[in-house]
Amino acid sequence: MRAVSQATGATLDVEGNPSTSKTTSGQKTLVELQADRDRISDNIAKLEAGIQTLETNVIPPLEALAKELANNGTLGQQNQQMADDYKKVVEQRKAEIVELQKQLAELDAQIAELEK
Fold first, then answer.
1. Residue 14: CB partners within 8 Å, gap ≥ 6?
2. How many CB atoms lie under 10 A from the CB of residue 38?
3. pLDDT per position as a tens digit, 52-71
4. Model confidence over 86-95: pLDDT tens digits?
5. How far apart are CA 87 and CA 91, in angstroms?
6. Rounded distance between C-alpha atoms, residue 38 and residue 104, angstroms
7. Long-range contact pairs involving 45-52 (C-beta distance under 8 Å, separation at least 24)
8. What whole-number distance in Å separates Cα of residue 90 and Cα of residue 53?
9. Sign of the C-alpha dihedral computed for residues 13, 15, 17 and 21 taken in this order
10. What confidence score (pLDDT) does residue 25 get?
11. 107 and 37 Cβ atoms separated by less than 8 Å
12. Domain boundaries defined on the chain
């Protein structure tokens, strides 16, 4: 019965409780939207944790080492290059977070619409 409801886009009420299959054809169910939201939230959290690690535990030591080795041929330059590369990774991750936050806002709007 639920499969028929989802296929036709109808609303299914079971024992007086509205089902989460309250969709129109081709749309995701409330449960699917909430699962997508959870997945995106988890991805944002992982990206933020990775950024924190790079900004705290990776980039500063590389920059310090680059300064210490500045007069030691290419070693100082290599460490500074690695630090700069990680800074670029941080900026890329921050841009990814912005896009994921936009997706999250869209999902929140869809969820709010279905919960009406």
1. none
2. 11
3. 999 999 999 999 999 999 88
4. 999 999 999 9
5. 6
6. 9
7. 47/93, 47/96, 47/97, 47/100, 48/97, 50/93, 51/90, 51/93, 51/94
8. 10
9. negative
10. 56
11. yes
12. 26-115
